[in-house]
Amino acid sequence: MFDLHCHILWNMDDGAETMEKTIEMCRTAVKNDISIVAATPHMTDLRRTDDFLYTRNRKITELNRLLNAEEIPLRICGGAEVYLNDWIFEADDELAELTLNRSRYLLCEYSLRLFDPEKAVLFAEEIAERGLVPLIAHPERYPTFHEYPDIVPELYDLGARFQVNADSLTGRIGENVRDFAVNMLTNGFADVIATDAHGVNHRKNDMQEMKMMFPPVITPEILRYTTETVPLYILKNEPLPRNPFRE
Ligand SMILES: [Fe+2]
Q1: For residue 238, how far is the Cα from the chain centroid?
Q2: Which of 109, 121, 189, 199 could be stapled to 137 by a disulfide with Cβ–Cβ 3.0 to 4.6 Å?
Q3: Is 212 in a helix, a strand, or coil?
């Protein structure tokens, strides 16, 4: 399977602190049948894309070289978790380099504080107008989405897609978060499940263990679709099929 949201690069954000921890996360990924990880450090300042890309790309090259040398069967590709605010309107063409594996899919996140849902639409529209597809990270975690659930179909209709976190589905961060995530998947609004792992102790990328804690309505078909089928389309930069779980 593929993990399209993971803070696996060392010393870039609040993810892995050291290269040793990065390698440990890589080994956990392999143990959990993950073959490709998109490195998606937080990108919180769109005015400093240059520095971010330079550091990220250098670390990915170094890490892939090391994985090869150690014969760890895992590949790391580029990505970012882009924090959406008004700077998105000023972003230059380098925004395209923040996409997942240089595809059209840009992993984005909103504020975890309550905000005007109209802003969510404006930011996503701006990305779509640049020919990119906003892949909204963990919709189940935004209080704004709980407060204004109609935002989900509105964003979907303008071309956004959604990625749910595996640990949200375990119920570890609350029942309402889990239920929102489950509804997104069973109604065919979420196309991707990823780990959003941040380290080796908590918020880990132990996908198989987390899967055992998912509610049974998350069927093997939904799991295959969201962790294999769709991520592969994204990595190959192909348009996504119509979600088969959509009524
Ligand atoms: Fe994240």
Answers
A1: 17
A2: 109
A3: helix
* Model pTM above 0.90: yes
Cα of 164 vs centre of ligand 1, distance in Å, is: 11
The sheet carrying 75-78 orders its strands as: 2-6, 36-39, 75-78
Residue with tokens 């150690």: 70
Instruction: Encode pLDDT of 49-59 as tens digits.
Output: 999 999 999 99
Reduced to 3 states, what is the DSSP secondary structure of residue 192? strand
241 Cα to the center of ligand 1, angstroms: 25
Q: Which domains does the chain have, with CATH numbers?
A: 2-235 (3.20.20.140)
State how far the Cα of 100 lies from the Cα of 46, in Å rounded to an integer.
16
How far apart CA 60 and CA 63 sit, in angstroms, is 5
81 C-alpha to center of ligand 1: Å?
6
Q: Is 133 helix (H, G, I), strand (E, B) or coil?
A: strand
In the reported structure, the alpha carbon of residue 154 is separated from the centroid of ligand 1 by a whole-number distance in angstroms of 23
**What's the rounded Cα separation, in Å, for the pair 247 and 245?**
6
Distance 178 CA to ligand 1 centre (A): 17
CA of 6 to the centre of ligand 1 (A): 6
106 C-alpha to center of ligand 1: Å?
Answer: 13
Q: What is the pLDDT of residues 69-79, one digit of tens each?
A: 999 999 999 99
